[in-house]
Amino acid sequence: xxKTLLNIWGAGLSVMLTQGTFVAQGEPTRxxxxxxxxxxxxxxxxxxxxxxxxxxxxxKSTTKRQGYFYDWWRDAWAPFTQEMPPETSAGSGxxxxxxxxxxxxxxxxEDATEISIKLNDGRVLPAQVVSGTRRSDVALLxxxxxxxxxxxxxxFATDDDLLLGxxxxxxxxxxxxxxxxxxxxxSAKTRRAQAEDGLLDREDWLQTDAAINPGNSxxxxxxxxxxxxxxxxxxxxxxxxIGFAIPIKRVNEAxxxxxxxxxxxxxxxxxxxQAGATGLIVARVEPQSxxxxxxxxxxxxxxxxxxxxxxxVFAFNRELLKSGDKEEVNLSIQRGDARQSISLQxxxxxxxxxxxxxxxxxxxxxxxxxxxxxxxxxxDSIAGVIITAVDKxxxxxxxxxxxxxxxxxxxxxxxxxxxxxxxxLNNLSRGTAVKASVLAGRPLRRVVVELRVR
Length: 454
Description:
The protein is an alpha+beta fold.
């Protein structure tokens, strides 16, 4: 090691300086240790961990100006429609899987015809919508990249692992300006709407004073561990420093609905799992489903699926989908103190939830609505089923249902088609009363009739 000897004659003191060492005549040697960068506190470390998994979302939608008489002929008369310049909205998203699945709010991408994702490294890639629901305001996107692309992700916090007053950080794309962070505290863990003011239309939102601005929607709210505790969703315009996020518990519930073998690939698994303190727990099993027939029970803890340890509901369902309906799914579960292995195979939903099941339950034959039928009925969508025949001495016959009538909903729930109708009816026991919303008569008008399933 090079040494430099400095004689300070004015002080009558000889000082020897070495790299990292201070030596003075008559004094013991003292080592000066370089201190860590005091700026890199827990907040900075959390941001460095999570920010690479937060993206900017650009959604373009095409709007149309409609003529006065367009409502009835909108699907057939192009001259009545003038396409306007595309509208663009900016939001944020969170990558939750290395294969490029992204969470955001449904209102960020609703009606979008083109979606692009800007990654933290500056790359811009297209994306497509996988699924989502307005009720949860959660949407799942898939980045369209190269086959071997792997993306940075944000870890999920454990459900309800929240401390009132703990430091939280909002990550997102405010005002479309690009990646940004703001810090605050968790002000409330279960903010609920008050019916008389209607400030919030969903229960159990997280409240924070971290700045959540337009464009932050769909971004991450993280704790000091860098874990996702919520999905940024809104600000309260009547007050300063009041922002809201969907808690990770509700996000997990939404994923368990929108990213399932049934929802993503029309394959029947027949069980729902949820995140718990001890891991993934089976919350519900349909008796006649592949899961039910395999012996899977409510309360079982999922340890492995096809040899992989699923740490989230999303990871579990992703492994199921990889197997499809051609390969066997192998589950390792814990039931009480015992560990067991279970095998099953997914099947196409239509092999069970079909028109035959509807006929057995209601005594009527139905088919899917087509755009042409919907147009003649003055409907805006093809959600529902049309009756083509009614059996004598059947629930449908007793309710005076007839050929050409359109079933739009059951018990105030909309139906999308034959599969959803059959799935709804399958859960009803013999003799159960069900109210059907039906279009009937000439001209067609909406009526409600009661049937008793058989």
